[in-house]
Amino acid sequence: MDPFDPPFRNTYKILFDKHFNNQLSTKSNKIEAVQEVNGCEFDLPLIDLSRLNQGGIESEYCKREIAKASAEWGFFQVVNHGVSQEVLDNLRIEQVEAFKKPFQDKVNGQCESDFPVDSYRWGTASATCLRQLAWSEAFHVPLSKISTVGGVTGLRYPSCPISPHVFGLMPHTDSDFLTILHQDHIGGLQLLKNGKWIAVNPKQETLIVIIGDLFQAWSNGTYKSVEHRVVANKHFERFSTAYFLCPSYDTIIESCEETSIYRRFSFKEFKQQVQDDVKSFGQKIGLSSRYKDSLVVNGRIQLEGIDVDETFSPLDVKNAFLHGDLSETVYMHQPPRFQVSEHPDYVCLLQRQGTDIAYLLLYVDDIVLTAFSKTLLQQIISSLHWEFSMTDLGSLNYFLGTYVMHDSSGLILSQRKYATEILERAGYGHGTLDYGLQLFSSSTTNLVAYSDTDWAGCPTTRRSTSSYYVFLGNNLLSWSSKCQLTLSRSSVEAEYHGVANVVAETCWLRNLLRELQTPLSSATLIYCDNASVVYLFAFFMFLYDISMRTFSPKDRLSHYLRSFIPGTDIAYLSLYVDDIVLTASSKTLLQQIISSLHQEFSMTELGSLNYFLGISVMRDSSGMILSQRMYATKILERAGMVGYNPSRTPVDIKSKLGDDGDPVSKPTLYRSLAGSLQYLTFTHPDISYVVQQVYLYMHDPREPHFSALKRILWYVREAEYRGVANAVAETCWLRNLLRDLHTPLSSAMLVHCDTVSGVYLSSNPVQHQGSKHTKIDIHFFRDLVAAGHVRVLHVPSRYRYADIFTKGLSSVLFEEFRTSLSVRCPPAPTAGEC
Length: 834
Ligand SMILES: O=C(O)CCC(=O)C(=O)O
Ligand SMILES: [Fe+2]
What we know:
- It is built from 23 helices and 34 strands.
- Strands 2-3-11-8-13-6-5-4 form an eight-stranded mixed β-sheet.
- α15 (629-638) runs antiparallel to α16 (667-680) and α16 (667-680) packs antiparallel against α17 (688-695).
- The chain binds 2-oxoglutaric acid and fe (ii) ion.
- Fe (ii) ion binds at residues 172, 174, 179, 228.
- It comes from Tanacetum coccineum.
């Protein structure tokens, strides 16, 4: 250290100790600091000022370049500026001489007789950490002839062994109008552009022009006062000379534009504020929110319950950005230009602007901005520019991989480039990728959605795929095609889930549109091709209504079988298109719901359940018996087999159905009978297997198939193969249903299976690869086994009840198994059937 260097280490020892102790515990900081501090190499705009003297177009272009550089960079270099090299050199020689005096002489003002006593400064008295300390010294010499407050400052940055832990000059903006700077060959000056520090390379013959805060306010944010800093050099001292152009203290700074971003202020007031901020916060706050014509005028904000006169620390605008709705009533002091002199104590009530609306979409650090007026848009852009260092990319044409093209009817969005990249990655050439999404500029506000569901479409999981499209007027706003999360037992249930999804989506869209100040006045229309679901939703409206009236919100509907449980009272309502079966845990509740239904819908009450969807319900002391006797008789009539002898079993164990035989003469009859038998399995699980068998030949029925079908009918006068996984799917659905009905099962469901390998496969995730017949369902049900919801057990042949669904059986076994399925004769025909 030279004897003339300021005693940085001793004076700021505490800061050094604090910093380097911390460094020991966080090693990585050092690397980051070095990387950050190097700055990018970038050439600042360089302007030849001699062009100004050429007049005409050349000088006009030169002025434009200056304006452009001031707006985009806030910094530029000039050559042919009129200050001779000799003057600059002499200035530097004088400056070096002054700094090379003993430190104490500099502090005591004993080095230059022309310099005022307090012209020497070094370090940063208010620094609370090393980053706030300026590793530099300066002589400030006022040029009273030019300006009362402006002057020339000579700066010296002693070599700094601990750079970059400490800056030569910490990041700041200049508080003046304009700075003209001359630096030596060492370098170290950097400016902030688009979030990056850019090195200002030293060029001997150039002067650097820096826009100051006052210029920014005066130009209403058009020209930028940009943050800059000096990184001290580890090995060499550096000199620079700065001329700060400042107005007199009482000069009022205000922009001449009608809508001004900044309030009017005096230079004196601003200077004072900067000094106060450095004292209070360790750094300058500058123009920022404080000088903006807004809520925080006078540095005061009002909080609920606190007097309007209390003063708070200023908001950090970066954090206060995008804060959502302002629901409170807010008052502010009269802004300087709008004071009512007769009532100096009045405050202003803030009201939201009427029609001026702007939308800002932020994706990480990309912003899309749109506003109802160009002025507002410009105003916001300038505010953003002031607050953040950002590039304005002009009108929207590319965002997140999507091109935006404008035409007379609106916008077209295209992902052509993105699609090409996918094709290239996949090794396909370029296809025809010119299709995009057209968005129309229209003011329609009808929200219309279309929903469709492919029931159990996924062969692996048996889940359904539901898709929807939502249009706002002509514009497709939202769409989705997704596998549902849960299994659906019927197409109605799957469709219902699909519609519920689109309802959620349209609710969200409605809310969004409301927040964007374009609320919809008409109801959302949702189209769905399943009539039952439409009825279902009509019912929900009704049920919602009565549940709102009768029960607390937590007990409102949650599924298509609805139950109300404000205590122990439960009601189940099952809806099939327009038939309803209703049951409740108490007569009162039942009655209450029936009368509400009557009020809402015109309907006939058929009394206690005895016939529903072709199924008659008979009661006896042990419970109910469901029978499709009448339905079965009608099938027999259609098949012309009323008088035939019954058969004891529905399937012939000797013959197996195949593809051969003569085609049947009445294939339509075959199909209709097979379809009817399918429905009959509802109360005849015992025919499931063989019905499923004859179903296989619906597309091309042959005589042997018809014989098999007839045999079922013979048997009926008085079977769907489902593998283990199907049984699991079914039982899963039942488990879910029981849970929905508030009677959850606590133990795992037992599935009996006749092959040992089936049991093994269900619990072994690896072994299933080779067994192709189980491939489809195995994943699904193995997951359930893993979760403990299902246990698959091997069943000895005597108890293989499921065989009735998978093969033809001898009459002894068949009858035994049929009994185990609770299939038995009803006591007598019922009134409902006759
Ligand atoms: O020394 C330099 O290069 C910059 C000086 C500076 O930014 C200032 O004094 O405000
Ligand atoms: Fe500066």
